[in-house]
């Protein structure tokens, strides 16, 4: 039986694509977390901004919650629709709207993939520098919703730094034009930055103006094998001092094990406990000499046990696959994921405490570490043992996450570095934000979403 509210939506928007097939509901109702059973009311796939506004006004009038949806590659349950919500999918709004060669900006719709943005920028001889492994499937709207980071934050910063302007449909259906591409604008609150990282709780991003920059210089990629966790920050400091780093990523032997199980060749004859893949500018003999000097210094200090320098683009891609292939290689194990951050200066003390905590609390579990050490972001993946019930596994992990959140609080860190809070991290918001901050956020949300329909239950409860 058709929900009468959907009949009214169809009548008001006869051209709207509206899906209610069970397969479509399951497909669009979940993200990569796979911990909740999708149960949306329907899937709306608008093709233009006016339709988005009309959908939101219908939802407000009939008390229907909305879950904005892009590529659904999120890892915190931010795009899950498990309680009869309307999924507002933006996949059809996926075009480049314009390029400004003077301002060096690219106007795009929110459903465009990150890979397509990279390609569009390259057509104009420029670059959009935010980058990570899900580039082919994640959407710009989702990137904005979570302030996505990735592998080049060390050099270029998060998504926030590259948003010149946004158009946002609020929870009352109003269209706000935020930022407008101005380099300087001291005319009050910058609502654009409120929308970035808001996880769809303040409205729906329907257009973004992205800043572009010069293409990166020629680079070199190097893989280093480290004998212990303790030397990781010494290696980072040595390379950052001597080289112009574009990226500095670390992963463990367990991460490498799972990637190689998917195919590929081990980079070294011996197995080492920790690895670093780093990319840096390479524009001449001086850079090459600096690279060799940095490597030799780290070896002489006992911080590096082995290393390989990419000989061409193909090998560089192979070395990067060892890092970027981790998430895909772990997917079949249904890992419990932690995505945490601390100041880079606090990283050594936090790493030591966190490693002790997880070693003590997860004696039987395979724990895979990797992350963006150069910007203080670590990803901790706990793999479910074969035969263990899923609910029991998540319950054990959540108890440990509570301890980890307290550790982060002591070190001034965040329980969510770049994946958002969603449903997964919501219980631990207290460790990152004060009670006063959370109340201010609730107040902002009430203003922009007066009917409480925008992605309710995510980030924090009303």
From TrEMBL:
Which domain of life does this protein belong to?
A: Bacteria
* Pfam families per the UniProt record, alphabetical: FAD-oxidase_C, FAD_binding_4
Q: Which SUPFAM superfamilies match?
A: FAD-binding/transporter-associated domain-like, FAD-linked oxidases, C-terminal domain
Gene3D superfamilies to which the protein is assigned, alphabetical: 3.30.465.10, 3.30.70.2190, 3.30.70.2740, Uridine Diphospho-n-acetylenolpyruvylglucosamine Reductase, domain 2, Vanillyl-alcohol Oxidase, Chain A, domain 4
Q: Does the keyword Oxidoreductase apply?
A: yes
What this protein needs as a cofactor is: FAD
Q: To which protein family does this belong?
A: Belongs to the FAD-binding oxidoreductase/transferase type 4 family.
Q: What's the protein name?
A: FAD-binding oxidoreductase
Record the organism: Luteimonas lutimaris
